[in-house]
């Protein structure tokens, strides 16, 4: 009888102590993201040419990667946006020469597009082909947002 009372007291004390331990708040990593905020722009295509992008990694032309403009990358080598992913929707082209309207891709941020204005993007050949159903190099309208 004494051992059951002692066991009950120990369990009650343990439960009270466990409930009183503070849980630390998670520390944010990297810059705050505009998660699920849609961005509207145009997209083009570029060759990697076996050179590392501004994120410091050499990717093959077949990789599904994207270069963001300086609005995001802020002329930084290895910007905090490196390694993030974006979802991109092909919303069509004004000249009708680019196919794949309605196609979506998820691309990894790996470079800076120095000539891109605002929310415009520059894709690797692999990303361009997936987004435009293998269209010739041109310009396509896109809607995109950050995933991570």
Outline the fold blueprint.
Elements: H1 2-20, E1 39-45, E2 65-69, H2 70-73, E3 85-92, E4 104-113, E5 121-123, H3 125-132, E6 140-146
Parallel strand pairs: 1-5, 2-4
Antiparallel strand pairs: 1-6, 2-5, 3-4, 3-6
Assign the structural class, choosing from mainly alpha, mainly beta, alpha/beta, alpha+beta, or little secondary structure. alpha/beta
How much is the average pLDDT?
85
Number of helices: 3
Tell me the radius of gyration: 24 Å
Strand order in the largest sheet: 1-5-2-4-3-6
Spans of at least 5 consecutive residues with low confidence:
none
Distance between the termini: 57 Å
Strand content: 25-35%
Main β-sheet, in a few words? 6 strands, mixed, barrel
Kindly state the percentage of residues in helix.
10-25%
Please count the beta strands (DSSP E, at least 2 residues each).
6
Q: Give the overall silhouette.
A: globular
Please trace the helix and strand order, writing H or E for each element.
HEEHEEEHE
């Amino acid at each position: 009888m004494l051992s059951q009372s002692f066991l009950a007291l120990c369990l009650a004390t343990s439960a009270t102590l466990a409930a009183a331990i503070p849980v630390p708040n998670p520390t944010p990593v990297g810059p705050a993201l505009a998660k699920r905020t849609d961005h509207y722009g145009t997209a083009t295509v570029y060759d990697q040419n076996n050179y590392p992008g501004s994120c410091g990694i050499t990717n093959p032309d077949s990789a599904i990667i994207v270069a963001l403009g300086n609005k995001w990358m802020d002329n930084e080598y290895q910007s905090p946006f490196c390694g993030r992913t974006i979802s991109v929707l092909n919303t069509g082209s004004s000249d009708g020469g680019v196919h794949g309207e309605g196609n979506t891709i998820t691309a990894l941020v790996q470079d800076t597009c120095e000539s891109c204005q605002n929310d415009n993007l520059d894709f690797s050949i692999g990303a361009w082909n997936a987004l435009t159903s293998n269209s010739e190099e041109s310009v396509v309208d896109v809607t995109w947002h950050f995933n991570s």
